[in-house]
C-alpha cells in the first residue's frame, strides 16, 4: 500500500496495491493488521471500526460538512467504488496547529484511493458523476443528537469545491449548517 501524506499530518491518502490482468483487477480494500501498523508507524492510534456506510449520489449532490461531537465522534476511512467524488476534511480541533485548514482529494472507482479522516474533522464530498457510490467505515455509530453540520461554502474556510458547471443538490440540513465561527462560538468543535 502506498501512503500519501497531506498538509495535515493526521489526514492520509491510501493507495492500495491493485493487481490487474486481462480478466480485470483485484485489491485488498482493508486489512486491519496492515492499517494498524501503518497508523502506529506514524504515531497514531489504530481505530476499531464499528459501522460501514454506503451512499449513492447523483452528479452535483453535495453532502457535508458533517461530524459528530464527543463521545460519539467518528473517524472515517472513505472510498469511492463507482463514479467520482471530491472529498474534503476540515480540521475542527481548536488546539491543533492546522485548526480551520482543509484537505481535498478526488476519489474515483479507477484510482482506488482511500482517505483516512480521524475524529476531530468535519467531512463532506460532492459527487462529480451520476451514481457515485461512496463507502465509509466509521469508528462510532451514527448518533443523531450529536451530529453537526458546518456550511460547505463558509467563506472563512475558503474550500475550493469543484462546483463550476454543476447543478448542486443539497439537503435542508446542509443548506442550514452553522458557519465555522458559529460552531466555534457555541462549542461545537473539538
Overview in brief:
With 190 residues, the chain is mostly beta strands. Helices cover 11% and strands 38% of the residues.
What does this structure look like?
The chain is mainly beta. Helices cover 11% and strands 38% of the residues. It has three helices and 13 strands, in the order ββββαβββββββββαα. The strands form three sheets. The chain has a six-stranded antiparallel beta sheet, with no helix packed on it. The mean pLDDT is 95. This is dTDP-4-dehydrorhamnose 3,5-epimerase. Homodimer.
Percentage of β-strand residues: 35-45%
- Total DSSP E strands: 13
Give me the strand/helix succession. EEEEHEEEEEEEEEHH
Largest β sheet strand count, sense and barrel closure:
6 strands, antiparallel
CATH topology: Jelly Rolls
Average pLDDT = 95
Number of helices: 3
Key attributes of the depicted protein:
RmlC_Cupin_sf, RmlC-like_jellyroll, EC 5.1.3.13, five-stranded antiparallel β-sheet, Jelly Rolls, globular, RmlC-like, 3 helices, mainly beta, six-stranded antiparallel β-sheet, single chain
Layout of helices and strands, plus pairs?
Layout: E1 2-5, E2 12-15, E3 18-21, E4 24-27, H1 32-41, E5 51-57, E6 62-68, E7 76-82, E8 84-91, E9 102-108, E10 114-117, E11 121-127, E12 132-138, E13 147-149, H2 172-175, H3 180-185
Antiparallel strand pairs: 1-2, 2-10, 3-4, 5-12, 6-11, 6-13, 7-10, 7-12, 8-9, 8-11
EC number: 5.1.3.13
Family: Belongs to the dTDP-4-dehydrorhamnose 3,5-epimerase family.
GO molecular function, one term: dTDP-4-dehydrorhamnose 3,5-epimerase activity
Amino acid at each position: 500500500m502506498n501512503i500519501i501524506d497531506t498538509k495535515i499530518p493526521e489526514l492520509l491518502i491510501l493507495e492500495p496495491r491493485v493487481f490487474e490482468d486481462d480478466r480485470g483487477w483485484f485489491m485488498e480494500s482493508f486489512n486491519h493488521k496492515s492499517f494498524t501498523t501503518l497508523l502506529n508507524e506514524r504515531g497514531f492510534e489504530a481505530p476499531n471500526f464499528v459501522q460501514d456506510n454506503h451512499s449513492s449520489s447523483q452528479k452535483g449532490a453535495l453532502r457535508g460538512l458533517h461530524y459528530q461531537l464527543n463521545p460519539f465522534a467518528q473517524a472515517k476511512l472513505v472510498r469511492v467504488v463507482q463514479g467520482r467524488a471530491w472529498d474534503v476534511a476540515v480540521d475542527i480541533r481548536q488546539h491543533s496547529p492546522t485548526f480551520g485548514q482543509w484537505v481535498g482529494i478526488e476519489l474515483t472507482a479507477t484510482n482506488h484511493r482511500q482517505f483516512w479522516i480521524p475524529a476531530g474533522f468535519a467531512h463532506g464530498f460532492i459527487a462529480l458523476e451520476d451514481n457515485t457510490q461512496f463507502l465509509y467505515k466509521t469508528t462510532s455509530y451514527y448518533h443523531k443528537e450529536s451530529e453537526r453540520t458546518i456550511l460547505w461554502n463558509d467563506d472563512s474556510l475558503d474550500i475550493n469545491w469543484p462546483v463550476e458547471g454543476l447543478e448542486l443538490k443539497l439537503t435542508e440540513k446542509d443548506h442550514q449548517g452553522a458557519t465555522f465561527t458559529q460552531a466555534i462560538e457555541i462549542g461545537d468543535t473539538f
